[in-house]
Design brief:
The chain is an alpha/beta fold and 219 residues long. It is built from six helices and twelve strands. The strands form three sheets. A six-stranded parallel beta sheet has the order 1-12-7-4-2-3, covered by helices on one side. A hairpin with a 4-residue loop joins strand 5 and strand 6. The termini are far apart.
Length: 219
């Protein structure tokens, strides 16, 4: 027998007899029933949100210093170009932006901002549109597609992401239904990139954007 065979044989013995030889092998239906029981009353096992609703909780999470996220509320898609221009000016960035192919971002050019589709490895700023967001964690979720390349969320120094209020889910597990319907390449991002691996000092932008700015579009 190979080492692989030994490992799987040990797993099989554990599943059928348990550590002390007293654990019976359970059927698939029994396991499913136990899992369903754990989820019977989600409100009892879910933590309290940090806000009155999903959107309020998302805003509160984004405001936490540990996430390194800034957020602007925008009254609607028409106000987006002005909000983007204000962010670029506030950070002394050129009015030049890599944007995904989402057609709702085409109006960005109307605010005197030069846009281009491809995101370079040293891109100063890029912009995406989130598919979902999560109030519990302050996360944004992107589903990779022809019009939504995930590199726009990974390569730039400043990442601007549009989040629609109506797509903010209360809890992380609420996303499970949509994850099953989405592509294999889905990216969940919670805050800006950071690490303390280098001599114990916290460094932002170590393996992704150093600045994450959410543009929250009112429903």
């Amino acid at each position: 027998m190979t080492a692989r065979d030994d490992i799987f044989a040990a797993i099989g013995r554990g599943l059928t007899r348990g550590q002390d030889g007293a654990l019976p092998r359970r059927s698939r239906d029994e396991i499913r029933g136990e899992a369903a029981g754990l989820l019977h009353d989600l409100d009892e096992i879910r933590p309290d949100l940090t806000g009155a609703d999903a959107v309020a909780a998302f805003i509160a999470k984004c405001a936490m210093p540990a996430l390194g996220v800034t957020l602007d509320r925008v009254s609607g898609w028409k106000g987006l170009p002005e909000a983007v221009a204000a962010y670029l000016d506030r950070h002394d960035l050129p009015r030049r932006l890599a944007v995904t192919g989402d057609e709702r971002l085409t109006a960005i050019g109307g605010a005197g901002i030069e846009t281009h589709p491809d995101c370079a490895p040293d891109e100063a700023a890029a912009m995406s549109v989130a598919d979902w967001a999560v109030g519990e964690t302050g996360s944004v979720i992107l589903h990779s597609s022809a019009t939504q390349p995930v590199l726009h969320a990974l390569l730039p120094r400043h990442w601007l992401v549009v989040v629609e209020e109506r797509l903010v889910l209360p809890y992380l597990d609420d996303y499970a239904t949509y994850a099953a319907l989405g592509p294999r390449n889905a990216v969940m991002i919670t805050g800006s990139s950071g690490t303390t691996d280098i001599e114990g000092f916290f460094v932002r932008g170590a393996h992704g954007p150093g600045f994450v700015h959410v543009l929250l579009i009112a429903s």
